[in-house]
């Protein structure tokens, strides 16, 4: 039996609404702005999976692959086609990272500078 349930991944950022909107569009998840106070919001898939976004004063984005400001965390998402996925995330406001390591995934930065990967099996 689980000790806890309904896990959330919480991502620090300078603008929770903007980052929730970005990831909501990327994953086609609902952005929840009910009671939004400017410091915290969430997205969810409707089955209990959630990401939360928390405002951090004086936020410093990670610098990957360097370790002066390490990535702290990143999200991998699966896509059917890397080229189509890349075009879509760039249109949402992502930036393709200059440092690419593999052929089955691509590294991008979300609008707050967090690395995330599009992966194709």
TrEMBL record:
It comes from the Bacteria. Residues 9-119 form the Glyoxalase-like domain. SUPFAM superfamilies: Glyoxalase/Bleomycin resistance protein/Dihydroxybiphenyl dioxygenase. It holds the Pfam family Glyoxalase_6. This is VOC family protein.
